[in-house]
Amino acid sequence: LATGPRQDNSIFYEIRTYDIKPSKMKEFLEMVNKYFHFRTAHSELVGFWYSELGAVNKVVHIWKYDNFAHRTAVRQALANDKDWQGKFISVALPLMEKQHNEVAYLVPWCQLGKPPKEGGVYEWVTFQMKPGGPALWGEAFRTAINAHINTGYTKLIGVFHTEYGLLNRVHVLWWNESPDHRAAGRHRAHEDARVVAAVRDSVRFLESQQNALLIPVQCSPLK
């Protein structure tokens, strides 16, 4: 990460977060499972989740694009897709309270991973780092992430560094077999001297941190 915010290619990821009206979440998820194939026909969906803990009535989905021209072409095609606009967008928009998006790159030392099996849960951890970018905090952050990986209790899926949105923000996506498996692993990690040392070194660059437990929807490629 200290070498820059992105990998050596033009691929980027759009992270979209929607706040759904509390009484409409069930209806919204049913709409996604029924009609989202119209959207995925246009570009690659990495994953789609709804929040279970740490946030409520939120959905998070991540899209992969080859470059910004690719995204522009996809957005234009979606605007002209009568099935997508008529069967999903026109019905889904009234169910939403707020939309937010970010553009992010995978950090240079991370490849997008997959869980070892289906049926687990995902943890979405957001770190707001101090201004200065990876040149300031990148190496310490990478060491802290690797310390958690080395405990073996969790699976790293991806580390995303924002390019548009709040800068100096890093999203880390983890997979665990279950919430209880994650809790037990976190307990062990907090007693691991390597993890403690790495976290102490990286936290001096940290401004805030939050996480959410995410459940994949039926149409999500990452399950």
UniProtKB/TrEMBL annotation:
Specify the superkingdom: Eukaryota
- Protein name (record): NPS3A protein
Any one of the GO BP annotations: mitophagy
Q: Which family does it belong to?
A: Belongs to the NipSnap family.
Q: Which InterPro entries match?
A: Dimeric_a/b-barrel (IPR011008), NIPSNAP (IPR012577), NipSnap_domain (IPR051557)
One GO cellular component term: mitochondrion
Pfam families xref list = NIPSNAP
Which organism is this entry from?
Piprites chloris
Q: Boundaries of each NIPSNAP domain copy?
A: 13-111, 122-221
